[in-house]
Every structure is written in C-alpha cells, then in structure tokens.
Amino acid sequence: MSHIATIQDPKTRLQRFPYRCEKLRTKGTVTNRPYDFLYDPLFIVSSERDHEQANIQATLVRSRLKKVPNFRSMFSNLFHHPRYSMYWNKSDPVPSCVNREWRGEEAKHKEALRLRAATDASFLMPKEEYEDPEVSGRNRYKFFDRPFLPFLQHMPLNVVLATSKLEIFAFPPETSKYAVIPLKCTVGTQTDYRDADVQTDPYSPEYVVCQDTIPELLTLATLTWGRGLPAGQAEVEMIERAREKRAWEASLPPLSDIFHFEKRREMMNAMERKEWAFREGEIEKLQDLRLEVLKQLLRRREENQNELDTRHLNDQWCRLQEAKEAKMVQIQHTHVSNIRKLMRRGKNVEGKLQRRDIIKEYADFASQVYGPLSRLGRFPDNNSEDFVVRNHYLNTYEGLVELEACLPDFVTQPRIIPPKPRVITTKAGFLKRTARMDYELAEVHKAVMDKKKKVLEGKKSLRFLQKNPLPKPRLPTPTLEMSSYEEGEIEMAVIYLQKLLRGRVVQNMMFEGKEKRLELILELRTSHALQEDDKLVKKAEKQVTLALQRQRNLHEEKVSVIENHLGDLEGRVLADMFDFLSKELVRLQEERRIHAFAMLAERQRRMREAEESGRRQVEQRRIQQEDQIFMEVIKVHQSTVTSYLEDIILNTEESTAEEQARAEIEKIADEINDIAYEMENRRTYLQSEEIVAELVYSFLIPEVQKDFVKEKVRNAQRKHILAAHDIIHTYTEAVIHKNARAEERRKKREESEPDKASVSEDQTPGKEKS
C-alpha cells in the first residue's frame, strides 16, 4: 500500500459546546443558531426586513413566556380555575451590551461616503479607526508560526497520508495472476475449558499409615498447589517452627506429674510469650509490607496524575495552537478577500453600474464561463480523476516494453518526407483563383484590424442651440358650488392642497429639466454673459446680495454677542449648581459605600464567628469520636484477650476432664470385666439352673399369661360383635327391599303416562267430527 505525502493547510477544528448540541443531534443538523444575526460577524442579512424576521424567529424559538402550573387546580378544566398561569421570564438571553440594531445602516453610510469621495474631489473621507492589533504586544503569538513538538505528534498536521485507490483498468503482472497455494496450513484448536479449569493438582499416590505413628509429611497435607506448593522460604520457616513446637511438646512434663507442674506452667508461659513476640513480629512485617504497597500505590497515583496533567496541558496547548492556526487562516482569508474587493473597486472608481456582456464573456477564454473560481463553489474539474483511463500498457514499464515490441519500425524510426512547395501560379504565369482569394481575404482582414485599432473621436458639442418647447398648461379643474359654510371650507382646503401638489409637480419637472439640461444652461450663461445689460443687472444683484450679507452678518454678530453673555451667565449658574450636585452625589455615594463596607464587615465577622463556632463544634465532636473509638478499640483488645484466655482455659479443662474420664471409665470397665470373669469361673451347675429358672419365670411365663388374657378378652367380645352384625344386616336388607319397591312403582308410573296421552289423542278427532 503506497502512501503519498500531500502538503495542505491544517483544517480548523470547530469548538464544541456541550450546552447546545445535545438536543440538536437528535433532531438533525441545524443550519444556524437563534442569535447568530447578533453575535456572528459573518452572518449577513440582505435587508432590515430580514433582520426583523430573524429577530422574530429567535424570539419564537426562545420564548420567554413560560407556563407555571397551579397545584391547587392542576387537573381543572374550568375557565375560572385555570390549570396554569403564564410567567414572563425577566432574564433576557441577549446581554444588554449587544446591539440589536441592523448593521446594514453603517455599511450603507460608509458606501455613501465612499461614493461621494469618488465623485466630489473636495470632500474629505473620514479616516477609519481600527483596533490596535498589538503585534509587538500581547497578541504577538498570533502572528508567528512555530513547529509542532515531536513528542506530541510524530507527523505534522499539514502532512496527510493519502490512501491508495483501486485502479479499475490496472492489470496485474503475469507472475501475480494466480495465488500460490501452500502445501501445508496451520489449523488452530479451541478447547471447551479454560486454562484455569484444566490446571489440576499434581498426582499424589495412595499411602498407608502405620498404627500409632504420625508421619511428619501428613502435617503438610493442608498445602496444595498454588497455596504453599512449591514451598518457599515462608513454608520452610513454618515447617521448622512446627518441628520446634513438637520437640517442645515432647519435652514438657506430663500432667500426671504433680511435682513438675510449676515447671510445666513456666515452660508454657515462656512459649506463649515467644509465640506472642513472633506474632507481633509477623504483624509488624505485614504492616510494613502494606505500608510499602501503599507508598507504591501513592507514588503510582501521583505519576498517573502527573501524566494526566501533562496530557491535559498538551491537549490544551494543541487546542490553542489549532485556534491560533484557524485565526491566522481566517485573517489571511479576510486579507485576500479585502484585497480582491479593493482591486474590484479600483477597476470601477466612478461607481458606474455595468451590464453583463455575455458575448464578451464567451469570447474571452479567460473569463469565468470557461474557468469559474473555486471560491464561488464551482469545481468543474472536481471528479476528473474518475474519467482518467488507466491501462497496464501505459502505466507500467513491462507494459510499455511489450507495447513497443508490438509497434512497427516506422513508429520508432520515423521517415521524414519534406513537403512540396505550394504552386500558386498556372503554367501561363497567372495567379490561381485560390491564391487570389487568399490575398483579398488578407487585405480585408488587415483593413478590419486597422479600423479596430483607430481611436474613436469624442462627441462634439452641438453647433446650433435648439429651443425646448414648453408643455401646454393643464385645463382648469371643474368645481361644484357648495351650499354650506363647512363644505366651502373643505373646498378651499382641497383647492389649496391641489395648488400645493401642482406647484410641487411643476417644481419637480423644472428641477428634472434643469438637471437634464445643465450643460446647455451653463453654455448659455457663458455665451450671454458678455452682454452689457446683463452685466449691469448682475452687478446690481451682486451689490444687493453683498449688502444683505453684510446686514445679516452684523445681525448675527450682535445676536452671537448677546447669546455669549447669556451663555456665560447661564454657564456660571449651571456650573455652580452642577458642582454642588456632583459633590452631594459623591458624598452620598461615599456614605453608601462606607455603609455597605460596614455591613459587609459585620456580615463577614458574623460568618467568621459562625465558621469558627462550627469548626470548634466539629473539632470537639471529632475529639469525642476519637476518644470513643479509642475506648472501643481498647475494649475490643481487652475482650479479645479475655476471650482468648477463656478459650484456652476452657479447652484445657475440657481436654483434661475428657482424659481423666476416659481413664476412669477404662479402669471401671477393667474392674467389671475382671469381676465378671471371676464370677463365671466360680459359678456351679445349681447356680446355672437357678439363673435359667429365673429367666424362664421372668420372661417366658409372663408372655404366655399375656396371650391367654388376650384370647379370653377376644372370646368375650365375639358375642357382642355377632349381635351387632345381625342388627346391621336386617336393617340394610329392609332398606334395600323398600328402595326396590319404590323403583318398581316409579317405572310403572312412567309406563302408564304415555298410554294416557295416546288415548286422549284418539278421542280428539271424534269430537271434531261431531
């Protein structure tokens, strides 16, 4: 796969705002935000009407009128008990510092000033004050480009690796047409169990333990594979301690030895202290190990936090770099756009509108008809790569060699034949018709080109003046006589209004005619200015005008002097009054500020007192909790020691009592056994007969008596059982006979009812006949 490095400008990444995109993603793409026409400087509307329409749409989208439910009548449908009330949200989504007016008026004003400056040379264009970019100040970093650091990105952003596309008409070489099939292949296997399930303990053979022996190996039966096996240093130390304890237990004096009882107690106390010391050492080692693990975890957490902070700083730096690049690209784009606008305005300084000349555009092959600008959104050669024909014989060296081998010789070794000179004359020495036609066409073309190159002469002024005929006056408007005075007043008002309208129309017509014939009027004024009468009239008018101007200037000067004196007096009074008011305002503001400072200080003092009291309460509560925890821990330790000692004492007492009881029972059993054997040996024949007689009298005779008594009771109850059987049989037979007779009567009744019905049917036809 081939990679091609292409250099391009870095793309600007738009900043994402979490507070606006959550709902918009579910509803689809939104073209713009509600208040873009106010915030976005690139958002342009065509007119003030569109600006108002955008404002209305934003107001409808972000409605400040909200429904507030009334909990007492939330489920009511009555008109006089509404479910909700409307609430007007006072918070405006647009800050007060944002101007809501249409920005097109300022642009129109600037355009009007520019056109006036272009037409009137005496007009001075006001200078536009731009904000200081502070290139050498705080904004210096925005105007310089720095390389990306290697540890952030291994490859700069302006290098993009292009993916290789599939060539449609590319033919593979002959060697790679057929894939090579390997002779062997590796097939993976999948088991039904995991490795943890398959892993078992090592095989342990069966064993037989000799009687009254306890092998040392059986003490290690609790150790299994992964839990103590294979044995390490800790297991070896445990085995050694077990051996030492068994040796110590063997060296203890027996419990039956009363003389060495104190020695046994001392040895047990010493061993107990030794075990407690060993246990404390193990606990300390375990605590040290836990402390070391905790230190490692804290160190690792600190390293991870530092790494995360470094990553955040790098990401922030990258975002700022991208924002700076985007800003520079935007500034460059604005610069290019402004340069184009200046060039376009320089071509049309006078501001005249020109129609589009379609013929000229199609005649000029450099116009946008044949090569449109890409910034206008048209890319005529956008998908040209799809129409490029790719062939194996043209794109590969092997194909070119094969193609050259198939070509004939005259392609690689061209044969140049010089052209014959063109014959333009006949055998008689005259020019041919085609040559003469070419000569005439060349002459015509030369004349046309000379005519085009000639400079057009300007328009000459009119030689004779022509009188412009005046239009005929309009006919008088017919009027009607009014009877009342009010109607007369209305008529006079209408007539006066008509006079004004007609005068305004005539004035507009005269002004249009004057503007249209301004050049002729100026020419007439220059031509008739040499007449003596006109000169005298002009001079008299000039003198009258100058006199009027002098009088007006004197009057204005007097009025200005009076106004200056009055303004001076008014200014003094107003200055004193404003000075007093400003000082009073400053005093009130200072007084309010001091009062506010006092209130804030009092509030802060109370808050600090409350915080201090709360802190003291928390501290006292924490001290009490710690004391309680300490007491509980001490109690737990004491109860643990007490329970441990009680368990040891109880276990010792139970084991001692059990051993003594077992020994006493065995002793009593041996004594009884000896007595029984001794009695058996001393017993005679008569004593044996007596024992048999006692057994027969005690067991056999009572059993026979019990069977005799049971038979006697059974015979006594037999007559009562027979009498009960006779009574039951007689009663049941009577009931059975009674039920049988009732069943026979019911059957006879059912048989007699159909016969009666048939007889009644036979009698009805006879009655009808009679």
Automatic annotation (TrEMBL):
<dbReference type="InterPro" id="IPR032840">
    <property type="entry name" value="CFAP91_dom"/>
</dbReference>
<keyword id="KW-0963">Cytoplasm</keyword>
<comment type="similarity">
    <text>Belongs to the CFAP91 family.</text>
</comment>
<keyword id="KW-0206">Cytoskeleton</keyword>
<dbReference type="Pfam" id="PF14738">
    <property type="entry name" value="CFAP91"/>
</dbReference>
<protein>
    <recommendedName>
        <fullName>Cilia- and flagella-associated protein 91</fullName>
    </recommendedName>
</protein>
<feature type="compositionally biased region" description="Basic and acidic residues">
    <location>
        <begin position="740"/>
        <end position="770"/>
    </location>
</feature>
<dbReference type="GO" id="GO:1904158">
    <property type="term" value="P:axonemal central apparatus assembly"/>
</dbReference>
<dbReference type="GO" id="GO:0005930">
    <property type="term" value="C:axoneme"/>
</dbReference>
<dbReference type="GO" id="GO:0007283">
    <property type="term" value="P:spermatogenesis"/>
</dbReference>
<dbReference type="InterPro" id="IPR026720">
    <property type="entry name" value="CFAP91"/>
</dbReference>
<feature type="domain" description="CFAP91">
    <location>
        <begin position="189"/>
        <end position="341"/>
    </location>
</feature>
<keyword id="KW-0966">Cell projection</keyword>
<feature type="region of interest" description="Disordered">
    <location>
        <begin position="738"/>
        <end position="770"/>
    </location>
</feature>
